Every structure is written in C-alpha cells, then in structure tokens.
Amino acid sequence: MYEYKYIDIDSKSGIGKADMIEEIKKTIDIEAKNGWRLSQILPVPNEKFGVYAVKGYTVIFEKLI
C-alpha cells in the first residue's frame, strides 16, 4: 500500500514558466531526500484562457507504507 502526497505549484505567485519548472525540480529533489518517490506531474488547466493554457502543476509523490 502507498501513501500519496500532492503539491501544487502554480503561477499565482507571479513566477514564469521557466521558474515553475525549476520550482518543480527543486520540489522533486527535496521530497526525494525525505523518502518520497515521484509518481506523476499533472498540468492544471487555466479555464480563463482555454484548455491548452496551464496555470500550474500538481506534483504527486508516493511512499510505501
């Protein structure tokens, strides 16, 4: 059985796309050091600008319990 952890990284904080990718990489490194394994990264659509506009990402980690 696995435990899951969800971390939202969005552009509301004023960071750009390149900065969001760097934030995701940093988050993956931090959580890996804490024993979490990356499971999936899901884009969160921005409904104001259409289906293909991304307002952020949900990074999903898993850990065996």
Give an account of the 3D structure:
The chain is an alpha+beta fold. The protein has one domain. The chain contains 1 helix and 3 strands, in the order βαββ. It has a 3-stranded antiparallel sheet, covered by helices on one side. The protein is flat.
**Averaged pLDDT, please?**
89
* Helix/sheet category: alpha+beta
Helix content: 25-40%
Going across the biggest sheet, name each strand in turn: 1-3-2
SSE succession: EHEE
Number of beta strands: 3
The N- and C-terminal alpha carbons lie at a distance of 6 Å
Can you tell me the overall shape?
flat
- Runs with pLDDT <50, length 5+? none
The largest pleated sheet is described as: 3 strands, antiparallel
What Rg is obtained from the alpha carbons, in whole angstroms? 13 Å
Strand content of the residues, in percent?
Answer: 35-45%
- Number of continuous helical runs: 1
The overall number of domains is: 1
Short description:
It contains one helix and three strands. The protein is an alpha+beta fold. It has one domain (2-64).
Write the layout of secondary structure elements.
Elements: E1 2-10, H1 17-33, E2 37-45, E3 54-64
Keywords:
single chain, 65 residues, alpha+beta, 1 helix, 3 strands, flat
